[in-house]
Design goal:
The chain is of the alpha/beta class and 416 residues long. The chain contains 15 helices and 15 strands. It folds into four domains: 2-124, N Utilization Substance Protein A, Chain:P, domain 4, CATH 3.30.1480; 135-199, Beta Barrel (OB fold (Dihydrolipoamide Acetyltransferase, E2P)), CATH 2.40.50; 203-342, K homology (KH) domain (GMP Synthetase, Chain A, domain 3, 2-Layer Sandwich), CATH 3.30.300; 349-415. Helix 5 packs antiparallel against helix 8 (258-266), helix 9 packs antiparallel against helix 11 and helix 10 (312-319) crosses helix 15.
């Protein structure tokens, strides 16, 4: 029976990766508790576990007395002599007796097995928890085995990893059975075991992909200084070369973009801007807001604020679709950026726009009013300004403002 018990748990050592000495300590603890249950809390005992031999030996120590008052801690001289007193023990000496495991009774043996199983499960949870705690911030590769409404379950080395919706790349489609890469973002202890949360949306995932695809980053020749990301849409990453002979941006992009394209594909075609980092906030902000052209930048380093002046035709480029470009620039640089729009002089526009080409946007009624008052082109309308346009019957201040904004927006689209 001893051999069966030790062998069953030795198998757990092999399968679960539990330390053999730790398991031996658990066996000693559990069987010690069983002895206390049978002989009382005051019992003196010893449990010897030999994992290599597959053996458990139990010993109880009792004092030799003339008359027994507590059979759990005392034994009579008469009984000692019956057991064969080869050591010549007398009253007051300690008698050590080996206990057969079967003598504990079937109920206690069953209890021992249950206790051992419970403690093994607890250790197994700790092993998994510590394993993934060491993997925090690292990429793991697993297979999707269940897709739920709010999260995805991933199998990694027979362990369950959780990819919650906020950590998924928006609009990315996942299929059961396919392989997925992500970083270990968080490991916490739950009631039923460790909860391992992985992420594809975290900035660290992008950083790790760059380290994998660009050897110069992995080797420390190029340093990633800052990352800003809106997963699935766009990201900006600032890099700096520690070797003047190596172009940081060129190394990250690769020949014909081969390196960056591998990362873009992994991120569901997320656009990635790689820029050179600068300690000078003026230069850094200017690079972060590329490809727009800026007229002036005023910086308050103490407040971490920047005021940027740009021509009206550059503002939409500077801000980006739904404001993504300026948001990423602020995250990347750590500066709050305010944009001041400067109207571009009409004479700087390369080409005028015939009003008839804007007929659909303006509407038939407005178009007819402008044409009838000899405004044939967009620049003629802008040059006239609000005061002149007020002379046209049927145009109020609100409508005039809408017309001017509409025409300016058409010029900005032409510039882009």
């Amino acid at each position: 029976m001893n051999m069966d018990i030790v062998e069953s748990f030795a198998q757990m050592v092999r399968e679960k990766g539990i330390d053999k000495d730790v398991l031996g300590g658990i066996l000693e603890e559990v069987f010690g508790l069983l002895i206390k249950k049978k002989y009382g809390e005051e019992a003196k005992y010893d449990v010897v576990v030999n994992m290599d031999r597959g053996d458990i030996e139990l010993y109880i120590e009792r004092q030799v007395v003339e008359e027994v008052e507590d059979p759990n801690t005392q034994i009579s001289v008469l009984e000692v002599n019956k057991k064969g007193n080869d050591e010549g023990l007398e009253v007051g000496d300690d008698f050590v007796e080996k206990i057969e495991l079967a003598s504990l009774g079937r109920r206690l043996i069953t209890l021992a097995k249950q206790s051992l199983n419970q403690k093994i499960r607890e250790i197994e949870k700790d092993v998994i928890y510590n394993e993934y705690k060491e993997l925090l911030g690292e990429i793991v590769v697993g297979d999707i085995y269940q897709i739920r409404r709010s999260d995805i379950l991933v199998n990694h080395n027979k362990n369950e990893l959780l990819l919650p919706r906020p950590e998924q790349i928006p609009f990315e489609r996942y299929k059961k059975g396919e392989t997925v890469r992500a970083i270990v973002k968080e490991v916490k202890k739950g009631n039923s075991g460790p909860v391992i949360i992985i992420s594809r949306a975290d900035n660290m995932f992008l950083r790790r992909l760059f380290e994998i695809e660009i050897p110069e980053i992995y080797d420390g020749i190029i340093e990633i200084k800052s990352i800003a990301r809106e997963p699935g849409e766009r990201a900006k990453i600032a890099v700096q070369s520690q070797d003047n002979r190596i172009d940081a941006v060129g190394a990250c992009v690769g020949m014909k973009g081969v390196r960056i394209h591998a990362i873009v594909r992994e991120l569901n075609n997320e656009n990635i801007d790689v820029i050179n980092f600068s300690e000078d906030p003026y230069i850094f902000i200017q690079r972060a807001l590329a490809p727009s052209k800026l007229k002036k930048i005023e910086i308050d380093e103490d407040q971490k604020k920047a005021v940027v002046n740009a021509d009206s035709d550059q503002v939409s480029l500077l801000v980006g679709r739904n404001g993504v470009n300026i948001r990423l620039a602020m995250k990347l640089t750590g500066y709050e950026i305010e944009v001041i729009r400067e109207e571009k002089p009409f004479e700087e526009y390369e080409e005028d726009i015939e009003l008839i080409d804007l007929k659909e946007e303006l509407g038939d009624d407005i178009y007819e009013l402008l044409i009838n008052h000899r405004y044939d082109t967009a620049i003629e309308v802008l040059t006239a300004g609000p005061e002149k346009l007020k002379e046209i019957e049927g145009l109020d201040d609100k409508k005039i403002e809408e017309i001017i904004e509409l025409i300016k927006s058409q010029f900005e689209e032409e510039e882009e």
